[in-house]
Amino acid sequence: MVFLEGGNFRTGINDPSSRTGEYPVYNSYVRPYYIDRYPVTNAQYRKFKQTKTRYKTEAEDKEYSSVFVNFLSDGQKQTFKEDPVQDGWYNVRGTTWNKPEGFLSNIEDRMSHPVVHISYEDAHAYCFWVGKRLPTDMEWEYAARGGLDNQAYPWGDRYMKMRMNVWQGEYPTEDKKYDGYDNTSPVDAFPAQNDYGMYDMLGNVWEWTTTKYYDRVIDRATQPLRYTLKGGSFIDTRDGNHNYIVRTANKIGRKPNYSSGNIGFRCVMDMSKEELYARLHASTTTPKPIRIHRKEEMFYDEYGHPRRKKKKKIGSHKEL
């Protein structure tokens, strides 16, 4: 995991044409936390399933999940219904996290790929098992930005080739695969995307967060429960001409029981109180007074707690 000190930052993007809630830009704050450097992989999720043998994912329970049309045979396209949530996707019977394209598929050569066909509840269950949790929208975006302010990508404002797994060509009939992949890719297939050393924040798979998602122009009371997904996926594009535009601030919403072949997740972990106090104490071993008013000064005691200096009252009864 990567430790991030947190703090104030600007989230969103100055693009009024955005249709996903990433506009406008506003100030936000996150506390110190740890975040996974990579999305959770098939190998990691398999270990969870081997331990929690009775746990059934959403796809296993309902016996189907959403698969991209390019991975289906003509017979499958005629047999299964189209997914109403994503164009070009079908609800294929027998699809699960370890059978990502149906009964005859497997993940034996994809153990380092991000696990997919995972619902919000499935991701939450895994995080709880490892003693972590899902990130909020703000925590995810803070980590993705890598300390940069109001930039489109984790590495800056200019698009760079071979930095993420996205769609190239006409959708869905032509995938030129300039990045080398027509499906998910290993989580370390591309270089770290920012100075925090974060991998796969953009592209490959969307990632669950715990933040509820609402459309901007619709009364929230009338909207169904959905959670925010961040990062874009292998079917999305750099310019948004097909599906969604892939950039740091972008987000979409899905119901907590939804799963598909382009949705995964990563975990975060809070800093313990003991570690927080230790870091505070280490940073204040040689404190310097901080002027906060013209006649008042601050200092820190041996426990790292701020204290105001008491001023002597000349002529008081104690001195008399």
Automatic annotation (TrEMBL):
Sequence ranges assigned to domain Sulfatase-modifying factor enzyme-like in this UniProt record: 1-268
Superkingdom, natural source: Eukaryota
One cellular component (GO) term of this entry: endoplasmic reticulum
Gene3D superfamilies: paralog of FGE (formylglycine-generating enzyme) (3.90.1580.10)
Basic residues bias (residue ranges): 306-320
Pfam families attached to this UniProt entry: FGE-sulfatase
Protein name (Swiss-Prot/TrEMBL): Inactive C-alpha-formylglycine-generating enzyme 2,Formylglycine-generating enzyme
Lineage: Eukaryota, Metazoa, Spiralia, Lophotrochozoa, Mollusca
